[in-house]
Amino acid sequence: MTIPITLTCADYPRIMPIATGAVKPEGIDLTFVLGQAGSWGSRAEMLSRALNDPTVQGGEQSMARHLLRVDRGDRSHVALPAFPLRNLTARDIYVRRDGPVRAVADLTGKRAGMYSWSASGSIWYRHLLRFLGVEQEALTWFIGNIDSPEWAVPEPDLPSFVNTAPQGKALAQMLADGEIDVLFSPPRPKRFGSGDGPIVRLFPDYRPIEMEYVRKFNVWPPQHLFVIRREAWLANKSIARSLTDAFVRSNEVYAAQLRSFPYVTPWMEADLEASEPVLSLEAHADGLEANRHAIDLFCAHAHHIGLTRRRVTVEEYFAEYLES
Questions:
Q1: Number of structural domains, the chain?
Q2: Three-class SS of 251-315
Q3: pLDDT of amino acid 140
Q4: Which among 25, 49, 88, 278 could disulfide-bond with 246, CB atoms 3.0 to 4.6 Å apart, if both were Cys?
């Protein structure tokens, strides 16, 4: 008898081997509810449903949100060491073409925009800044939506140097208008890349900085993982290991496909060959031990910047998984 499990997730190519059933978790009849067309809005819906939709047993979730739950003693969800989303972050720093920020040294004392103070990506952004020699307190921050003028939901307990963006103000527009000087954004702002548009990357050639970061920390920063509801896990604790093992195998299948058919872009094979000495495809491997260092670094930096009251350990973060 197999256990029916339904999970939500964005439609990342990397998870397709398990989402299509090419890889099957032992003892589980797995169904995916997937986002559509790589949409950021659709992905946000999947993240919300993983926690709030009673018709599913879990799904893709923010690493930071789970970390904050653990810090508060909330064990309502079980984290699996399976990470569908990772990102290197120097590429996500945008400035105004004619603005005052041209180099890292120009950041001190400037006004910065970011989509969230407590999201996984924003934790890694501040880790990158520290690597570049800039502490978070060196900037004045504004938290809001990137391109949408709708008022962002205020985050509680923000430090004194962090503000909520003014109502009706999108951060990308604030950057273009000179109301902020730098923007940290995972989606490309709509006014970026339009020839002589007002928004450009701080690091047009971001690869050398990201490769230096990888060499120093030996990490491809994970940002999302999978969670399952505690009641589903309690009904049969073996599902945590079975699902994680399947995600590990799915990643292996995806990596093999990349090597066998590297034709997604004209020069993808050259990119794969150039990246392998620094960041192998196995750097995206799932499983606890393969990611212990990255998770510990994430938890340590979240505590360093004041998001958690204590440094949560890897064992705390994955306590239920380790029990299963």
A1: 2
A2: HHHHHHHHHHCCCCCCCHHHHHHHHCCCCCHHHHCCCHHHHHHHHHHHHHHHHHCCCCCCCCCHH
A3: 98
A4: 25
